[in-house]
Amino acid sequence: MSATETTPHSASVFEVNKQHLQTTRVIDLDMSAPMGLNDVLLRVDKFALTANNISYGITGDTLGYWRFFPSDEPQQWGRLPVMGYAEVVKSKNDQILVGERVWGFMPMATYFGIVAGNVTQNTFSDVSPSREGLAPLYSTFDRVSVNPFYQKQNEDYDILLRGLFTTSWLVNDFMQDNDYFNAEQYLITSASSKTSIALAFCIKQTAKRPAIAVTAKANMAFVMSLGCYDKVISYEQISELNPLTPTILVDMAGNKTTIAMIHQHFGEQLGYSCRIGATHHHNLDLNDKSSLLPGPTPSFFFAPSQLSKRFQDWGSATTMKHINMALLSYIAFCKGNIAINYINGIEKINDVYQKVLTGHTDASMGIVVIPFGDNK
Q: Which of 138, 71, 68, 134 is nearest to 103 (CA)?
């Protein structure tokens, strides 16, 4: 893309039905309206699609994810946010130049527009009215040219892993910050998911508590091969664990049956019950009676809260240095364990989206979508 300002006649965007996530569509958007002061138009180069993005749809109303890129028909349709790279193709903000490459939250689209604000040397934010009250972390775009941790050869793994790795790093940091709630081990469900693997990697680096993987029988060999869990069991083997061992549960599955089973097995020996993902969303009940379970009430982990605390404790630069240095090590680890599956063309998203939605993707593969269908 040259640094010449251009305006596309139309854009395409992938939307999902908010009440029936399996129902999707790709629609064209009219891009002919004049841009206002501080408006910035970005061309999407590539983005990653993971089970994390499905979780955004499941909690879209309760946690506000539908508000990042609202649909023109917001009552029925929503646009799932994804992590990706994009380039500025038109800018009405003097501090943001055409041709700039950025990393951040974006819709599954060919182009998207933002209202730019909070511009610094390293970042700028989308300050659109729909973002009011949402976590600033998810509204920020990194300016690639000044990111000291950027490596072009890492781009595909970066968009696949950075967001979920940051969450996992902060989970482990939160547990350390609270002296592991006096627990002696981690129990991590949906252990083959990329967020779980990232958490196990972080735990392994600190080497202060062992991590037990809980996964489907079909994924046990892959999870064992990673070498970042201290023990791997199937869901059917939960009852074989010692119920007297003080334990932290980090639940990535969102399966109400599994959560109940673990709470009933460990009872008061559960020091903390942390909910993050929803990979088993077909057995998810956001209005469940989890407060009636034995042991601590399961709590959703909100990464921006722990990040904000660390910014106050250490300063933002030091905090991000810690996270980014750990991320580079994790990317190197994943390059030997996870391959990239490229999807070329926005019209081809639905097929792979349906596989992610139903949990039928290969745990050893990462999905990167190139909406314009450019050859890698």
A: 138
Residue 135: Cβ within 10 Å count: 16
What mean pLDDT is predicted for residues 261-275?
96
Condensed to tens digits (0 to 9), the pLDDT of residues 132-161 reads 888 787 899 999 999 999 999 999 999 999
Inside any domain, residue 315 = no
Residue 76 is predicted with a pLDDT of 96
Adjacent-strand bridge partners of 316: none
Between CA 196 and CA 78 the distance in angstroms is: 26
Distances (CA, A) of 208 to 34, 128, 170, 180, 184: 56, 43, 16, 9, 9
Q: How many whole angstroms separate alpha carbon 141 and alpha carbon 229? A: 33
How many whole angstroms separate alpha carbon 108 and alpha carbon 13? 6
Of 184, 203, 291, nearest in space to 245 by CA: 184
Q: Which helix (H) or strand (E) holds 324?
A: helix 316-335
Q: What is the mean pLDDT of residues 52-67?
A: 84
Domain that holds residue 64: 10-147+340-370
* Contact between 161 and 333 (Cβ < 8 Å): no
Q: How far apart are CA 18 and CA 57, in angstroms?
A: 7
Domain containing residue 44: CATH number: 3.90.180.10
H or E stretch covering 271: strand 270-275
Return the residue matching tokens 């790093």.
169
pLDDT at 31: 87
Q: State how far the Cα of 157 lies from the Cα of 179, in Å rounded to an integer.
A: 31
Percent of the chain residues topping a pLDDT of 90? 76
Q: Does 223 have pLDDT greater than 70?
A: yes
- Are 78 and 66 in contact, with CB atoms under 8 Å apart? yes
In total, the chain counts a number of residues equal to: 376
**Integer Cα distance of 231 and 193 in angstroms:** 16
- Is 176 in the same domain as 59? no
Q: Residue 339: is it exposed, middle or buried by C-beta count within 10 angstroms (0-12/13-18/19+)?
A: exposed
What is the rounded CA–CA span in Å between residue 343 and residue 64? Answer: 28
Helix locations, 111-154, DSSP H: none
